[in-house]
């Protein structure tokens, strides 16, 4: 099958990958360095045991970094350390040796020729018998740091080997007894020092720093790569699982091999093969009229891992990474950060990248995942293994599609760019660019914190339709009081009908909500106040109306739920947002809300009494009408005739089927307490459901004798205790209501 431009590009890079290694070694004569340690004096090489002991006497136990902290833990690292202020390095040949060594390492590690390496002394380490350093990665302590240089001093010892891993490859370095042994490696390589078995191991460590140089590739297939890029960006993409061709891709994401931190992600600090490939790609992008940035990607792969041989796999014992990977079932790549095209900084983004935009010289499966998870037999796929990787990438897009390519990633920059165009007077250009967001903006905007910027741009565009498109995807929960001024300005620009549409959209059905949005209502009074102050009372009204609409639905659902143990906590939970809504509403809306609340059944009290209690304790006004209505309702409840002793009738409707008719007759009887009802299975189930869902005080049991079995229904004493409790609650509530002072006129 003909290769796509993307595949050819990956192959071109695979052949450039030989250039750099993750670690490299060099030996040099010991005379080249003179080491002097304060409190000890000159240290003669090779180092003998008495000198090593003197060094230990002025050293301290080494620390190690974990996240933000620096700790000593001899279970992780057990060695003695001297800091740079305690020693000096010199000698006639030292500077020249180091310069030569750094040049050698720059080439061996595959840094660009233009880059300059520097070594900054970090420590002297002394390992005695049994001392070691467990596998770890060095943190990049400075901008510009790319790796570590270890200069082992000659000294007699066994053990104490330096083992360095990268991408599944491992190298072991032993120090010479006579010479200096220099080993350089990239910071993203895991490495360890194995326990010293005898003698002393001494090492000078340095941070390796790379200075910026213009990364120009020396020669190479730039033209061919540029051709691949052009073809990639002009050829319709073929979806992986078939189907119609898609539009030509907007991006090419080329995955790099080394790991980088956000801070370390700059062109001149790329390591090994990455440096060369990125420089080539950058030059090719330039030639093909494209723009490149560096990005951090999260990659998940799901592999099938064989069949029967894993049947007796024991999750606790086995290492998931021991599995033989068979087929790639699924993968997912998301970019979470990228740099600015001018290299000046970066920003968090969120972008899922389809497979037809991705390529790599090294497949993820040859790298070390940062997490693996084994799933036993999963039906369709047998056993599967999920693996997660963090990879860096060069992302390229055609310069003339840069705006959409960046905007789709949720880039704050895209909105800044729109604003800049508006400010520079290019309103038409800004409108056209904003319009180009339409195909994906509903996906993008919702997942990032762009509301404020979007409001501002939407207002300045002075194009109602485009403004709606920009603002529609947000959910109301992302609107905070900080956005009040922006919303007021937009409402002022486009008028009431537009504002209503947009706000209705924010409350719309497409934004599914659980109960998390209740928290948002906490801030509603402040938001509405600020809108009114800004002269946009109408916008405040619309927000309160939308909130009431949702709360009304929730109140209706829960007040009609018969089972108290489900209903009561839910209604109580609704009291907080309802309280805030009543605070936020204007007088007219308050009257409307009160009127609507009167239409609910008595269980609404389970929400309203907490509302009133919280309003009273916070001395907020505006609850008079609700309080009066509740008082009335409670009085009516108490005025109802009490259940007479011996009255076992239960009012109930049920559905209109024959079974429910029979059940209703039994329930309605003042005297009949039990019913023995021969009934087949389906019938019994229907009656069960009716009793349960209405929370009737009736016990139902099946006597498994005869054909059909007999359903035995018994009215329980709860019929009386419930009525008594309800009455008692009503009395207490009414007494409280009558006693509590009114917080005064609304305001
Ligand atoms: O002792 C060595 O050779 C390496 C020490 C090391 O890994 C470190 O200081 O981070
Ligand atoms: Fe280290």
Automatic annotation (TrEMBL):
Residues 118-210 form the Fe2OG dioxygenase domain. It comes from the Bacteria. The keyword Iron applies. Keywords: Dioxygenase, Iron, Metal-binding, Oxidoreductase, Vitamin C. Pfam families: 2OG-FeII_Oxy_3 (PF13640). Its cofactor is L-ascorbate. Transmembrane segments: none annotated. This is 2OG-Fe(II) oxygenase. It comes from Amycolatopsis silviterrae.
């Amino acid at each position: 099958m003909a290769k796509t431009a993307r595949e050819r590009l990956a192959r071109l890079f695979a052949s450039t990958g030989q250039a750099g290694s993750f670690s490299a070694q060099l030996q040099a004569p010991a005379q080249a360095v003179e080491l002097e340690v304060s409190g000890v004096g000159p240290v003669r090489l090779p180092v003998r045991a008495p000198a090593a002991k003197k060094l230990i006497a002025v050293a301290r136990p080494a620390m190690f970094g974990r996240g933000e902290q620096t700790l000593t833990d001899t279970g992780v690292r057990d060695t003695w350390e001297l800091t740079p202020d305690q020693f000096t390095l010199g000698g006639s040949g030292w500077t020249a040796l180091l310069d030569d060594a750094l040049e050698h390492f720059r080439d061996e590690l595959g840094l660009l020729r233009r880059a300059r390496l520097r070594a900054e002394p970090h420590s002297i380490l002394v390992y005695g018998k049994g001392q070691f350093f467990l596998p770890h990665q060095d943190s990049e302590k400075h901008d510009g740091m790319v790796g570590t240089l270890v200069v082992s001093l000659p000294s007699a010892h066994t053990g104490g080997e330096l083992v360095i891993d990268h991408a599944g490859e491992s190298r072991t370095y032993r120090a010479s007894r006579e010479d200096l042994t220099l080993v350089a490696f990239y910071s993203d390589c895991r490495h360890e020092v194995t326990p010293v078995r005898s003698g002393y191991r001494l090492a000078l460590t340095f941070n390796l720093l790379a200075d910026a140089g213009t990364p120009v590739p020396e020669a190479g297939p730039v033209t061919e790569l540029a051709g691949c890029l052009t073809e990639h960006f002009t050829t319709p993409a073929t979806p992986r699982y078939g189907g119609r061709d898609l539009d030509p891709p907007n991006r090419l994401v080329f995955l790099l091999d080394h790991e980088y931190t956000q801070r370390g992600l700059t062109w001149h600090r790329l390591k090994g093969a990455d440096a060369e490939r990125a420089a080539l790609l950058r030059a090719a992008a330039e030639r093909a009229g494209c723009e490149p940035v560096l990005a951090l990607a999260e990659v998940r792969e799901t592999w099938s891992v064989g069949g029967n041989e894993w049947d007796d796999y024991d999750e606790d014992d086995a290492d998931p990474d021991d599995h033989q990977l068979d087929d790639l079932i699924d993968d997912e790549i998301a970019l979470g950060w990228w740099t600015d095209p001018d290299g000046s900084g970066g920003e968090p983004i969120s972008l899922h990248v389809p497979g037809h935009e991705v390529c790599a010289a090294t497949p993820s499966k040859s790298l070390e995942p940062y997490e693996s998870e084994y799933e036993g037999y999963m039906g369709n796929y047998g056993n599967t293994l999920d693996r997660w990787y963090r990879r860096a990438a060069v992302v390229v897009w055609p310069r003339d599609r840069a705006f959409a390519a960046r905007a789709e990633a949720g880039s704050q920059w895209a909105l800044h760019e729109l604003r800049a165009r508006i400010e520079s007077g290019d309103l038409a250009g800004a409108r056209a660019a904003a319009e180009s967001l339409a195909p994906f903006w509903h996906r993008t905007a919702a997942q990032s914190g762009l509301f404020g910027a979007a409001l501002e741009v939407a207002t300045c565009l002075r194009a109602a339709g485009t403004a709606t498109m920009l603002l529609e995807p947000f959910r109301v929960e992302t609107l905070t009081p900080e956005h009040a001024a922006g919303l007021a300005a937009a409402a002022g620009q486009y008028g009431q009908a537009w504002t209503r549409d947009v706000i209705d959209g924010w409350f719309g059905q497409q934004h599914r909500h659980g109960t998390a949005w209740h928290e948002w209502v906490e801030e509603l009074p402040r938001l509405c106040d600020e809108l009114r102050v800004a002269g946009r009372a109408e916008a405040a009204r619309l927000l309160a109306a939308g909130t009431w609409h949702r709360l009304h639905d929730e109140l209706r659902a829960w007040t009609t739920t018969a089972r108290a143990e489900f209903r009561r906590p839910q209604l109580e939970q609704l009291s907080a947002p309802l309280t805030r809504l009543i605070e936020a509403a204007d007088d007219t809306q308050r009257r409307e809300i009160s009127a609507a609340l009167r239409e609910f059944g008595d269980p609404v009290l389970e929400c309203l009494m907490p509302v009133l209690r919280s309003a009273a304790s916070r001395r907020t006004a505006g609850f008079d009408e609700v309080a009066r209505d509740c008082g009335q309702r409670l009085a009516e409840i108490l005025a109802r005739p009490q259940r007479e002793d011996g009255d076992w009738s239960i009012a109930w409707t049920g559905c209109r089927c024959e079974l429910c008719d029979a059940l209703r007759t039994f329930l309605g009887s003042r005297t009949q307490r039990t019913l023995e009802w021969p009934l087949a299975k389906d019938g019994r189930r229907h009656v069960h459901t009716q009793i349960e869902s209405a929370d009737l005080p009736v016990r139902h049991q099946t006597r498994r004798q005869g054909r059909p079995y007999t359903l035995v229904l018994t009215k329980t004493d709860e019929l009386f205790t419930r009525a008594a409790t309800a009455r008692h609650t009503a009395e207490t509530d009414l007494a409280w209501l009558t006693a509590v002072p009114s917080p005064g006129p609304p305001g």
